[in-house]
Amino acid sequence: MSTHRFSRRTLLRGAGVTMALPWMESLAVWGDEPTTTKPASEAPVRFATFFAGNGFHGKEWWAKGEGSGMEFGKVLEPLTDFRKNTLFIRGLYNAEALKGNIHSSQTGNILSGAPLASGGDIRSGTSVDQLLAQRYGQSTKVSSLVLGCEKSNPSVHKNYSMLYSSHISWTSPTTPTPLEVYPALAFDRLFKDEVQRGDKSVLDAVLQDAQDVRRHISSNDQRKLDEYLDSVREVEVRIEQAGKKGELQGWRPTLAAPNIPRPPDGIPQDIAEHMRLMCDILVLAFQTDTTRLCTLKLNNDHSSLRFPNLGVDYMIHHLLSHSDTADWLKVNQFFLQQVAYVARKLDAIQEGPRTALDNSMLLLCSSMMTGSHDATQLPVILVGGGGGRIKGGRILDYKEKPNRQMCRLYLSLMEKMNVRLDRFGDATERLEEV
What we know:
Elements: E1 11-14, E2 17-20, E3 46-51, E4 63-64, E5 71-72, E6 86-90, H1 103-107, H2 128-136, E7 145-148, E8 156-157, E9 160-161, H3 163-166, E10 170-172, E11 175-176, H4 183-191, H5 202-214, H6 219-242, H7 271-287, E12 293-297, H8 317-320, H9 326-347, E13 350-351, E14 354-355, E15 360-365, E16 380-383, E17 394-397, H10 406-416
Parallel strand pairs: 3-12, 3-15, 6-17, 7-12
Antiparallel strand pairs: 1-2, 4-5, 6-16, 8-9, 10-11, 13-14, 15-16
Helix pairs in contact: 4-7, 5-6, 6-7, 7-9
């Protein structure tokens, strides 16, 4: 039996560039060396967390039914096509977040359940994504990808640092994980050996290596490789164009004309394009197994983003969240559209018998149910199959149950990635139903 010349860890290389390959039937995958008669092993499980600050529309965050017959409230309507892939989880909460009852005290520990220091000190807990990165992320080029669409806020609000509102990922109890808000730099981190902008296109740098690989793979894989390279090129072009628009979103200048230089090229000025680019980078990262862990903070808690793309430019996100208006619903649905977009892209990527969505877990959460700071239960959904270990199309209701710690969910999700702990945060047992 002959083995293939290339392996799953074959990387396209060029000057200063390393690009991982997507799953292919012709190549060894996930560390195996398949023969012409033995199928490749299963793809790894990936975990992505989407965070939307300030909660959601109080009357339109709901689900009922099961399977393809599930019904969603209007906030969740963008996920209608993925009802069979979705777990709607009701009633979980974070006990430590109730102590301060402000945005910062409810956000900095959303992924850890840890107590937060106040009074100018900064101390939270290592978040679930970074714990997984330490134990699970060493086999990939990037242990975890932490992305954001709004810059962090270093101020203090009611005795709590606003860094808590700006960071949900924590490498250690005293170290928020650096948040990448520039799509160009996030893209470079995936593919370039040094994280800085280069003059040469990533694809141009690896083109010769890609052509060499192409000669040794099946016709199906040749099409897959072409599609993948096209998608990388598309993201490159969009990043290049993203900083050329004139409008600024997320804050409004107090002067008639700016008194500082314009931001450098490559920083998206359009929030819709910013979020979409970050979503595409997340998909590329998972598709190439460059990382298996990604945290995408769509906005800060206490957010100052505005949404002229939705015709909602008269009020910042935080203030808008204190109402249940039609405009607030528009913004909610816009956020859910980002999750649906990633789900759709992953579902179109075939990895043997499953899709990349089947092999992923996409968690969406916020630090409060509504903008009125109600954190007695949190909005939580999970999309994806977790490598065949999660059955979607269900509602799990813990609202009236005694042990409803959010950290119980994290223990369950870590177990799906073969990281088994006896305790995490304030939880000592898993949610067995997940």
